[in-house]
Design goal:
The complex is a heterodimer of chains A (372) and B (829). Chain A is mostly beta strands and 372 residues long. Helices cover 5% and strands 52% of the residues of chain A. Chain A starts with a helix and ends in a 10-residue tail after the last strand. The chains are: A mainly beta (372), B alpha+beta (829). The interface between A and B is medium-sized, with 33 and 37 residues.
Chain lengths: 372, 829
């Protein structure tokens, strides 16, 4: 971990500044997420270069044959710098930056490791196809072949190789895929998810010598937009939860500087049969029951929640499977955030359920306002 | 014993000007050694630091056997399981508007993060949110560069300034510091490719590998993979000869210095024989006297060593810069950082000063303790005795000479052994000085008598009478002057050989681009070739390759053009060799032939891009362009071997009968400059090479000066000891009626006489030394033949030095004579 830290400090300025400065590049020319979008898959699994920011986000909860639990996160970002490269014939000529994050949580050993990369396309080093999901960053990749998704990543000791198969159809988040993030014009993203992906493959943690066979469930989000966050928003809390009764729940809360929660925050509940419904902010009641202070960033994060959605008959208590699942990504996106595997239990439509999933919390160690 | 020692120390104070001179003599000797050793070390370590800094944390480097590679291979590196990190680099030299060549690194700051964290951080350092416009300028502005801070300071540029280069104006968007001190220009890889017209090309990839053998097995064919260790070895081989040269100079400094200190110490003992005799007759024991001497000598050694180490440190500051200049013109632009002061420096100085002093005093002390006190009371040893001593010393000298010649003849393959042989040779000859002086006495008497009548003859007599001291002084002076003549003649011969070589090989009317890191576009070559009136255009491409584990160079040339226009100096045979070269044979330099014992008819195997290729050696030519060995082949053969079409420079030959010679050359020059390529006439090109040559020998030349300075102190000290000691003789001369002017003249003639003897001896010894340096040392270290060209200049310079030093040395005694002579009495009787 200390290696990560050194590398991070070394390149700290690179990317922090890079992201801060991005709006300087004629942000107005980037297409904003305004109005209904006519979705077309598999084309829309691919890149949308007319938008400034885009990501392909995989998280998952896995178990090996011995019952050991693991979590993983593999995220590919595309951050537009200019709409047209200065020298289109030269592949190094800069248009987009490609940061990527990869993390593995080894629950039974209480360990968490992450890695980050930032690249430009160069001669085929990184990129995202426009006609379908084929996104790669040096040796890390996510590719869709037929109806399965293939993930590959390796860094020093840790590695994963997974095949993901949707058990439910994809969900368009927000209003038919337009997910509002604030009241401003264009302050929104296009957002869809595969909430329930049957997952198989192998995983190697930084501490284990050999890859182990694992299976479990993954969640995939793709989101793209331009200038999504406003300056008064400091960060967000995002939940993706699989319930043992087959329901999946997504929630996000945008936190404002004044301590209030953006009223555009919302959620989606996916039933076991794949039907989904949008959850408005007013339908969701989330309560923080405890906090954890990061010894590295000194950020204080919530680490226990009670989530109640009376209209859906949901009452859940959630907690991280490992407390320290913080990513200090000074060498790629410059953002420090907590993203980790969580578990819990509660009631769903009157029945006792267990649940597992992922929680992402940003803006607890430095504000994100205006970054995305 | 304390009394005895104290009496000695009081003497030092009484003779403080002499003591000071002795101290300075030792200090100068120590300074020369320390200065040379320190600067050699700091220059070489700066060099390796600069090389290491450029390669960063990479464990290996991947490059084509020759020329740049296609950037598409990076995709294969991404997929290779042995590669933990990789960073592509475009690395060339850029000519600035002021003529300096500076290394330009084209990098991708993202991929470079793992390899060169300091460099990769530089493009974004200091760019806070307040300066949003230019925070990505490194990646988005295609003229944006970062400058190394010393270079920026030298050019007077700051952030926001424009940097003028032969490839246009570049915008300085920031300054960064390079711990190795090498001037650098940093540019984004995309922009560097565009600036240097290298689309899709990279020069090498720096790698961090987790599995070396696996990687090598996959990438062996057509690539060169160098590990960090191999890189250091290559580096070591590259500067090996240069390092040797510096070490030799340090050794030479040590030799001259030890000789001088030895002399000084010897004087201290010899000139005090009488005092020792008095003390002995007063009841002091041998041990007491010896201890008193040792204390005195140790005091000199320690103080002189201390002082010398400070002088030496200051000297190293100047020498480091000179050596840096040499490395810059030979290998790599470098600004070496002088060594920091450390307490090891005075420690080393004291060891040298003390060691040499004790060595010098050993023999006279032994003699002194054995001798009867009554005899020593006479002061100086008698004439007959000193003559006998001279023969004894000469015998030892002959023995050393014989041993040295045997060493040089049979064991000189080892360069260090060869050096020892040369020094031994020099030392042996120096021991013959006394005898030669004895034998030359009549000649000297006639010569000085002719100039100065009676005082002249007395002066000659004095020199021989005091052989114990004059012999040693002359020997020391002779060694220093010989070094000056030897080094001077060797450099002069080398320079003449180089001029001859340029005249035979570099006969183009115009040369376009001359640095091996620069390139001439192929279409430009075609363009020039098609100009009417041009007889031929030779392309030159030189790359380093590994041959039998050692770095040699391969050059691609146009054999048909050289056949018509050049007149190579062949070790054997003549221009008929070109026919075979046109058909695919190669010719090799003398240095290659000697290093690998390869001659005409033998075959060499080179690793080509499609596997090993056997090539036949057709001929061997004289060459001074690289000491590592040069394999020259036709351009077609070269391209077939490596698939590399790069051209480093071209030579344009005008038809001999062409009347519009000047217009055509102007046209060629204009076209070259419009492409940002430097163009030189043959004369300019030759003088550039000579400039590099001269700068290579700048250190050697400074060493010559230092040797002379040391010698000056040596001879001055010797003369002063003589004169001070001989005040009583002056009393006798006065009693005999000699005038002040006559005594002053005699003193001067005595000094000049010693100077003449030293010079005459050094002319012979220096010439022998030059021949040894050329035939043994150069041949061994560089594997090339230098032709001995006799030149009067080194002799003239040395003669002038000898005269100036001896006159200078006589000035103080003469002044003293003028001041005290009228009151002098024969006090002793």
């Amino acid at each position: 971990m200390s290696r990560m830290k050194t590398a991070g400090i070394v390149a700290f300025i690179i990317t922090l500044v890079m992201f801060i400065c991005l709006p300087a590049f004629a942000a107005d020319d980037w297409k904003a997420a305004i109005g209904q979008r006519t979705w077309s898959f598999p084309r829309d699994h691919g890149a949308h270069p007319e938008f400034r920011t885009e990501w392909w986000y995989f998280t998952g909860n896995l178990r090996d044959g011995a019952g050991n639990r693991y979590g993983y996160q593999l995220t590919f970002f595309r951050q537009g710098v200019r709409l047209k490269p200065a020298d289109p014939k030269n592949p190094w000529s800069l248009r987009d930056l490609y940061p990527a994050h990869f993390a593995v949580t080894d629950v039974s050993n209480d360990k968490f490791h992450f890695a980050e990369q930032i690249t430009r396309s160069g001669p085929g080093l990184s990129g995202a196809a426009a006609d379908g999901m084929n996104v790669w960053n040096l040796g890390w990749s996510a590719k869709m072949k037929g109806d399965t998704l293939h993930l590959q990543a390796a860094h020093e000791g840790m590695a994963l190789s997974l095949v993901l198969k949707p058990r439910k159809p994809l969900i368009l988040q927000g209003a038919t895929g337009l997910s509002r993030k604030g009241p401003g014009h264009g302050q929104a993203s296009y957002y869809y998810s595969f909430t329930d992906l049957a997952t198989r493959g192998t995983i190697r943690t930084a501490d284990s010598q050999m890859p182990v066979a694992v299976e479990g469930v993954s969640w995939f989000d793709q989101e793209f937009g331009s200038n999504v966050l406003s300056k008064d928003q400091v960060g967000w809390d995002w939940f993706s939860i699989h319930l043992s009764d087959g329901r999946d729940l997504m929630l996000f809360f945008l936190r404002k500087k004044d301590g209030t929660v953006e009223k555009e925050s919302s959620g989606t509940l996916v039933e076991s049969d794949g039907k989904s419904r949008h959850l408005k902010r007013s339908e969701i009641n989330a309560e923080v029951l405890g906090t954890w202070k990061s010894p590295k960033s000194s950020g204080t994060y919530p680490n226990r929640w009670r989530v109640r959605i009376p209209a859906a008959g949901l009452d859940l208590e959630l907690a991280p499977l490992v407390a320290a699942q913080e990513l200090i990504t000074a060498g790629s996106t410059g953002v420090t955030y907590w993203e980790g595997a969580v578990g819990g239990k509660g009631t769903s439509a009157g029945r006792q359920v267990t649940c597992e999933g992922y929680v992402e919390m940003t803006g607890y160690a430095g504000s994100l306002g205006g970054l995305f | 014993m304390r009394t005895v020692t104290r009496s000695f120390l009081r003497y030092l104070y009484r003779r403080r000007s002499l003591s000071l001179l002795q101290l300075l003599g030792i200090a100068c000797g120590v300074a020369a050694v320390i200065g040379m050793a320190l600067s050699a070390q700091s220059a070489l370590s700066s060099f390796s630091q600069a090389v290491e800094f450029l390669r960063g944390k990479s464990s290996h480097t991947l490059e084509r056997l020759a020329g740049p590679m296609d950037e598409a291979i990076l995709q294969d590196l991404v997929g290779d399981p042995a590669v933990a990190s990789f960073a592509p680099v475009v690395e060339r030299r850029l000519k600035l508007a002021n003529g300096d060549l500076v290394r330009l690194l084209g990098i991708d700051p993202f991929l470079d993060r793992a390899i060169r964290p300091e460099i990769s951080r530089a493009p974004f350092a200091g760019r806070s949110g307040g300066e949003r416009e230019d925070s990505l300028a490194f990646l988005t502005d295609e003229r944006a560069v970062l400058l190394e801070e010393n270079l920026a300071r030298e050019l007077g540029l700051a952030k926001g300034s424009m940097l003028n280069t032969l490839r246009g104006r570049l915008k300085v968007i920031g300054i960064f510091s390079n711990p190795s001190g090498e001037p650098l220009i940093l540019m984004d890889i995309a922009h560097a490719q565009k600036l240097l017209e290298l689309p899709g090309k990279i020069d090498h990839v720096d790698l961090i590998l987790t599995d070396e053998s696996g990687f090598v097995s996959r990438w062996q064919e057509g690539y060169r993979i160098q590990s960090k260790r191999q890189r250091q070895e290559t580096f070591g081989a590259m500067v090996g000869a240069f390092r040797l040269n510096l070490e030799a100079l340090s050794l030479m400094a040590l030799f001259v210095s030890v000789f001088l200190i030895y002399n000084t110490a010897m004087f201290a003992v010899v000139s005090r024989r009488r005092d020792a005799g008095i003390l002995r007759s007063l009841g002091a024991s041998r041990t007491e006297v010896a201890m008193a001497f040792l204390t005195e000598i140790a005091l000199f050694g320690i103080l002189g060593g201390l002082l010398g180490s400070i002088f030496g440190y200051l000297l190293s500051l100047a020498l480091t810069e000179i050596i840096g200049g040499t490395i810059s013109s030979l290998y790599f632009f470098l600004r070496p950082t002088p060594m920091a002061w450390s307490w090891w420096i005075p420690a080393a100085g004291i060891i040298v000063g003390l060691g040499a002093s004790l060595l010098g005093s050993l023999l006279p002390l032994l003699e002194l303790t054995r001798v009867d006190p009554v005899l020593t009371l006479r002061g100086r040893s008698g004439n007959r005795e000193s003559r006998r001593w001279a023969w004894f010393v000469a015998l030892a000298g002959v023995f050393i000479l014989v041993v040295s010649i045997i060493v040089l003849a049979f064991f000189s393959k080892q360069i260090y052994v060869a050096y020892i042989g040369v020094f031994g040779f020099l030392f042996g000859l120096s021991l013959l000085t006394g005898v030669i002086m004895v034998l030359a006495e009549p000649l000297l008497r006639r010569l000085l008598g002719g100039v100065g009548k009676l005082p002249g003859r007395i002066a000659a007599g004095n020199i021989i009478q005091n052989l114990g001291r004059t012999g040693v002084a002359v020997a020391a002076f002779m060694v220093a002057l010989s070094l000056s003549i030897g080094l001077g003649s060797m450099i002069g011969s080398f320079r003449e050989s180089l001029i001859w070589w340029m005249g035979s090989q570099l006969r183009g009317d115009m040369y376009i681009s001359n640095a091996s890191d620069m390139e001439v576009p192929e279409n430009f070559y075609e363009e020039i070739r098609s100009i009417p009136g041009i007889g031929g255009v030779d392309t030159y491409r030189k790359v380093p390759v590994l041959y039998r584990g050692r770095t040699v160079h391969v050059a691609g040339i146009k054999a048909d053009v050289l056949q018509r226009f050049a007149r190579f100096g062949w070790v054997a045979g003549g221009d008929e060799h070109w026919e075979a070269v046109k058909k695919g044979d190669v010719i090799v330099s003398e240095s290659f032939a000697r290093s690998f014992a390869a001659g005409p008819g033998s075959e060499i195997t080179l690793e080509g891009s499609a596997g090993p290729v056997r090539l036949r050696i057709e001929g061997v030519f004289y060459d001074y362009s690289t000491e590592h060995g040069l394999i020259m082949m036709d351009r077609e053969t070269y391209i077939g071997l490596y698939g590399d079409r790069t051209i480093n420079s071209i030579a344009v030959f005008i038809n001999p009968v062409e009347p519009r010679r000047k217009q055509i050359l102007d046209d060629v020059r204009g076209r070259a400059l419009s492409r940002g390529l430097p163009a030189f006439t043959r004369e300019q090109f030759h003088s550039n090479i000579l400039e590099v040559f001269d700068s290579t020998f700048a250190v050697t030349r400074s060493m010559r000066v230092i040797a002379i300075v040391i010698a000056f102190f040596g001879i001055t000290g010797a003369l002063m000891t003589l004169f001070i000691e001989r005040q009583r003789d002056f009393g006798i001369l006065r009693a005999l009626g000699f005038s002040t002017g006559q005594v002053a003249g005699m003193t001067l003639l005595e000094a000049i006489g010693m100077g003449i003897v030293s010079f005459v001896l050094s002319s012979g010894v220096g010439t022998l030394l030059a021949i040894l340096l050329i035939r043994v040392i150069n041949l061994r270290s560089f594997n090339w033949t230098i032709f001995y060209y006799p030149d009067w200049q080194p002799y003239a310079i040395t003669a002038a030095t000898a005269l100036a030093a001896s006159v200078g040395a006589a000035l103080y005694p003469i002044w003293k004579v003028h001041r005290t002579y009228p009151q002098m009495q024969i006090r002793e009787e």
